[in-house]
Amino acid sequence: MTIYSWFQRLINVLRQLFDDAMRTSLELFKIIIPISIATRFLQQWGVVDQLGALLGPVMELVGLPGQLGLVWATAMVTNIYGGLVVFSSLGPTVELTVAQVTVLGSMILVAHGLPVELRIAQKAGTRFRTMAVIRIGGALLLGWLLNLTYQASGTLQQTNHALWQPDNVAPTWSGWLMAEVRTMVVIFCIIFTLMVFLFILKKVGIHDLMTRLLEPVLAALGMGREAAPVTIIGMTIGLSYGGGMIIREAHAGDLTQQDVFCSVALMGLCHSIFEDTLVLMVIGAHVSGIFWGRVLFSLVVIFIIARLINRIPRTVFERYFVRPLKGAPTTTEQTTTAT
What is the predicted pLDDT for the residue at 200? Predict the structure, then answer.
């Protein structure tokens, strides 16, 4: 391969990644811009302080200021980037430690984009409310455990300094508008950089290595080998990809209902482990919580859930954990066939 052809190929790859980043950013901006305007009005009207007081007791359980409840609530309703937009507005007004930002980031990673992601889980054959409890309850439990760990060990107690910190916004609407435009540009640059980084990881084989390492782990959780590939896709790339494949496999009847439930639950608690982790590191969250803590916590939770499912009556499992899918066999039918 000549230098010219290699250079041309590099340009084509970068152009494709740039186009992908632009499309992704535009989709995000459709959500982010209305949220930014709404947040501005909430601040102007003093609603943020009232919401902070309302959510204060919940956030204080995990060692966070009450004002940050709005950040997590926004992320749960929209997505991670929506939460970060609110954080960029509220973060500079509250002095936070690295531990606190890590706790908040971990909670956001476990429970975000719930309207969309819970709908995906429901289409795959799980109960909407059960998955909502697992995601929200799991986020609070993980945040509580991380806060206890950091407090007891005295680690990450230094003042947080985000890699990306927005400038102080002028009190006027024009000053706020200019700050928001700069924020949109920075978000696009972050997304483009992440896509380049993920492309490199795939090319050097890190993604394939992670797949081989995780297959025996999922088997130890009691999940069938058939569920491992799609679960790993959801964990490494995203719930939309993995969830879409789980939906297809579930409707085809190739997976047991227990495999479907455990796979979707694991993907819900821990998905996009590379991309989402990098995004939260931008605001100063530490990898000990947003990556290692989240992965370990998710595996332990699914291990417990899998053992619980084996102990409860099948009727209870089918009523409260999963929902029947057209064309897919129920747990009872699958058990009978296997017997």
Answer: 81
